[in-house]
Task: structure prediction
Amino acid sequence: KEAGRLKNIASSVQRQKPADGTEVSSVTCGDDLGRLLPSELVKLTDPALLLDFAKRFTERGLLEYELKDKKPEGRGPVVVCIDNSYSMSGSREVWSKAMTLALLTIARNQKRDCRVIHFDSDVSRTDDIKFTEDVEMEQLLDSMAHFSGGGTNFEKPLSEAAGAIEGAAEYKKADIVFITDGECDVSNGFREQWQAQRKELGFNVFGIHVGASGGVASRVLNELSDKSVGVADIANDVSAHEAFSI
Result:
């Protein structure tokens, strides 16, 4: 039920995204005043050329730009890191898995592969879901049902995500979504390495802090993410919907 609600929201956000638009491909003849070349438009200011302009307009013989739809830029996979620590058990776990399923819906529609990384104090499970192939429902259910319930460590799942992007060509241009309810410190060495990897590999990181006090994401999550949101109440999770714009 929760996944269905968030999937509907995800679809709505995606529909509201601006279209890729068009680009000029060549020059052709026609009568579209909005696409005329400047050399044709300037004739409208010269009374001596106005009659010729009108004649060619009726004959659809004016020079104009030919437009074509822009080819969509290739999008990388979606890497979702889900906190499976003990404090996530219950409604927070259900919500985080529902959010993941909604993100998987976007990935499927955009033909983007997805990697799901479950973590607590270590990476407890990794699932690769390729939407260019048939995905078995049992695979999704088995992944979402996993819960380890340990401690919390941010460095290991983020290193796993960056390693996947660095080590496989198909994971270039990936978006990382990091879902957690914890405040977990990281070493200065990891901070420096993480910033260098983000710059070198060009991936984007979206952090979601579940149960954030006052709806403000933790300091560490802010530092590690390009953008982060705090969700104080998972029953009123409007701020987390920004993640669906990926």
